[in-house]
Amino acid sequence: MVKSTAIERWEVAVIGAGLSGMYQLLKLRQLGFKVRVYEAGGDVGGTWYWNRYPGCRFDSESWSYVFSFSPEVLREWSWAEHFSGQPENLRYCEFLADKFDLRRDITFGARARSASWDDGAREWELIFEDGRRARSRFLVTAIGPLSAPTMPNIAGIGDFKGEAYHTGLWPHHPVSFEGKRVAVIGTGASGVQLITEVAKTVGHMTVFQRTPNWCTPLRNSRISPQEMESIRNRYDDIFRRCRETWGCFIHTADHRNAMDLSPEEREAAFEKLYNEPGFSFWQGNFRDALIDKAANDEMTKFVIKKIRARVKDQRIADKLIPTNHGYGTRRVPLESGYYEVYNQPNVKLVDLRETPIERVTEKGLKTSDADYEFDMIVYATGFDAITGAFDRIDIRGKGDQKLKDKWADGPHTYLGLNIAGFPNLLTLVGPHNAATFCNIPRCIEQNVEFVSEMLVHMREKGLKRLEATHEAEDEWTAHVYDTGNKLLAMQVDSWITGVNKNVGRQKRTFMAYAGGAPKYRQKCEEVVAHGYEGFTLR
Ligand code: N01
Prior knowledge:
Layout: E1 7-15, H1 19-30, E2 35-38, H2 47-50, H3 62-65, H4 71-76, H5 86-99, E3 106-107, E4 112-118, E5 123-128, E6 133-141, E7 163-166, E8 181-185, H6 189-198, E9 204-209, E10 216-217, H7 225-233, H8 235-244, H9 263-274, H10 280-283, H11 293-310, H12 314-320, E11 334-335, H13 338-341, E12 347-351, E13 357-360, E14 364-367, E15 371-373, E16 376-379, H14 388-391, E17 394-396, H15 403-406, E18 425-427, H16 440-461, E19 466-468, H17 470-485, H18 517-529, E20 535-537
Parallel strand pairs: 1-2, 1-6, 2-3, 4-17, 6-18, 7-16, 8-9, 8-16, 9-12, 10-11
Antiparallel strand pairs: 4-5, 5-6, 13-14, 14-15, 19-20
Bound molecules: 3-acetylpyridine adenine dinucleotide.
């Protein structure tokens, strides 16, 4: 139904009521701004609202992921598991919304169709899918880095007559796999979690894998009330430690170089990390492990041995072992029995490098060598990462310039928070912002606090318009690539390097910021200390 076209007016409009939009709302409301959040979904939670697929859970430690801004919330909220599952994560978001009465300032079911800057009025105009319109002095995007799900570009997608789901758009009703023949396409972090969970009850599952990923164990466990109490007492220390690490995870990189050690010492260190929970093996590894090929090869060889020991049929292990990239050079899926799934007699792995999918049929999938029949197809095919959610809104800045056109060859931003030519637009967790690859609430807090402080500064000085200079943007973009080019990850196709064949993006760029969260935070602090250097404030 098309809503009335009466224009709603705000000082600040925020798109998205995931964790970043929720905190931005709370902060701006506390600071006395007239703010409204517009959310496409039916409730708060963002990622945790949409990704309801079986097996979905944190891979940051729950107690390191929690927001730190409210001592009261930290006192009242308890985690039941070290790596909490989606239902509990969503409850946490709902708890925050209830606690701070956030929903009264959020419009749900409002999917933004366009956002255009009116230079005369110095305002943004938002138009939503249902025809609703809103105008605001400032526009904050809190639309998430992994929120634009992509279906595979395979012929016949609409032909399948059975059940079909995308992990990132999972239905709210229960889905049963019992006795069913299920196909899963995709083996990224979502696929790995889902496959492991579905394998517990499925009749028969066929996994269609295009590129294997390196997976290491999550090692989740329950948190007893006593342990939760002890965690609560250590929150200050936990947040302090996270602030100091590259990605704000609790794991600190080993300060030694892998290649300075003897093979035995290296092996012992790898073994220790492999047996620890969470991202220990990835983020806590040797400092050269993700930048030096020889060190990375050692780490990779260690994981190959682990995979081979866990998969009984070595021909299947061959298919599960990546051959085109080293460990940790793509986002590492953490697993809880993933490799053992392929020892089950009712699970089949199809290597799409050998037999590509030709089309979806009424009854299932046709590859180059077989016709498969299924009751259900699960698309674990990921997202148009980081810039995709921006591209899905027709965002136009000064002179009607389209953001999508400006970013056609990869993002250009200042601090990943503003874009030259797009005044008064603030992009939380935007491309080239340290938050895109971070233990996200840690970086969201920094982003939201920076933006809020800037808006207060402008209000106090009677300023109405902010915009990054082209020079500052060029310098930041060059710095982002300098940091990225040190990583072996830059030589690999992944969502971090912007490659997504489903949306026709073949060329590698760089979507994240690899200088690390501490360096990013320091840069933002310097910008503020120098009177918002790099921005023109008028
Ligand atoms: O998506 P992905 P995801 N035909 O892009 C395959 C976060 N996350 O949803 O690699 C066949 O990683 C594709 O193959 P390829 C996390 O940051 C966090 O799994 O392109 N296959 C790949 O295997 C993660 O990195 C958690 O060759 C096709 C898969 O689909 C990010 O979200 C949990 C295909 C997509 O993998 C994205 O993860 C889950 C095609 N046409 C996710 N198109 C936590 O634990 C795509 N694929 C917190």
